[in-house]
Structures are given as structure tokens and as C-alpha cells.
Write a structure and sequence with these properties.
With about 270 residues, this protein is α+β, with helices and mostly antiparallel strands. The protein has one domain (about 10-260). It contains seven helices and twelve strands. A seven-stranded mixed β-sheet has the order 6-7-12-8-11-10-9. Helix 2 (about 75-85) crosses helix 4 (about 125-145). It is globular. It starts with 11 loop residues before the first strand and ends in a 6-residue tail after the last helix.
Amino acid sequence: MLILIETMGGGMARCELCREQRPLKKSHLLPKAAYRHVRDSEDEGGGSPLRVNLDCGEAFYTDKQVDMHLLCGECEQRFSKFGENPVSRLWATKEKFPLLDKLSRSPEKVVTTKGFVFYPPTIIDPSELESLFYFGVSVVWRSNCWDWGRKGSPHKFSLGPYEPKFRNYLLGINEDLEDVKLMLALDTNPDLQGLMAFPYHARSGQNHFHRFNVLGLYFDFVIGRAPNDVFNKLCNKLNSKCLITSRDMATSKPILDLAAEFQKLDVD
């Protein structure tokens, strides 16, 4: 388990987003509203979700939410208004998956290949698409700033020179993020739609990759000037910085790797 060192709330401190000295609110790395959807249903006993930490080789049931005092009230509300609130109406719950349902009803599909179905971004309301992008950027940026205590985090400071660009975008100072593209995958497997995973970072050549998932939504950000040729061609074809796809994530490499590592763990 990663030990979270929390600061005391209520005092004046610097907000990481606006950089003003203000009273800080308790911020969640992944949305507070999402946690109730990863608990067992009442029919299943209402048990706590299972938290897995592969770095430490631990797995245990807990209702502990990952939070810290990071943002002022105004910036916290900004994240809610432009990201978390609209996205909470799109992610999967035990009853429905609104965004996947909408895409599944559409006759428009760009291409179907190797288990992936690509959709034109135009079938999603532009405000919803922007909210998904904003929400994803906010989570990656938060993780870049997050304090996990003595054990640290390999994702901290991983945005490098892009951090000011991310911060300005989140503040509304600039309306676009150059060299930043998003692959948004929707999990069609209802047995896996209750998973959440904190962001992690990888690098290949000139590109940086940031991934996390929450309730059936898998966010994969590609940052760099030389993205994969196929990825780049699809973005150019659709004239969009965001590609939308759906697939059964049970066959994806991250889930298969997770399953393999999970077999090694003792669940407390």
C-alpha cells in the first residue's frame, strides 16, 4: 500500500493550479464520485473494493480514498465543472454505461480491426468530448503533482516541460494542447467496468505515454511531436486530437499483465 501523507486543511497554502496562497480543499486523485461504483452492490454484500498495488506486491480490501490538500476551492470547482461532473454522466455504473450505449447505437464506425471499433468523434457532443479530454488532462496533471509520501511515485514530475502547458490549459489560459493526443477506449466487458487504475507513465523514443482508467473509460495520452504513424494518420483523417474506440479489455495487454501479477499476490 502506498502511504499517503496528508497535510492539515484549513490553513493558507499555495494552490498547485492557480499558484495563489489560499485555503486548500481536499482533492481526490480519481473522482470521489467514482468510488461508490467500485464497491460491491447490496445484493453482493456491499463489501469494500479490492485495492491492488503491484509495486509493493500487496492486495487488500479498503474504503480508503486517495486524496490530499492540493487545490483551492475555486480550482477544485473548476475541475468539477469542466471535467468530473460531465464525465460522471458518461462512465459505467452497475446499471448502465451511457457513453458506450450512445456509441453502440451509432451506425457510424471508422474501422473495425483486431477487436477494436473506432468511432468518429463527431457522433459525440463536442462539449462531452472536450469534458473527457479536460478530465483526462486534469487527472494526469494531478498525478504529476501528487505527494505519495516517503515511497514516492514514478509519475511525479513526469510531465516535464509540458507541465506549464497542462496547467495553463486547465486554467483556461490556452485553449489547446499542442503535441498532446488522446486515445479513449471504452471497455465492452461488463465484468471489468468497475476497475480504476491510477496514472502511470512510460516513454518510447520521443513520445511520452500517460495512462489511467476509471469505470470503463481508459485514457491513453500520447505526448510528443512524433506519435505512432497509424495513430497520427487516424487523428489527421478524423481531424481530431482524440480517438475513440471500444473493445473487450479482458484481452488487452494491461489486463492480462494485471491478471498474471495478481496470481502472485496474497489478498488480505
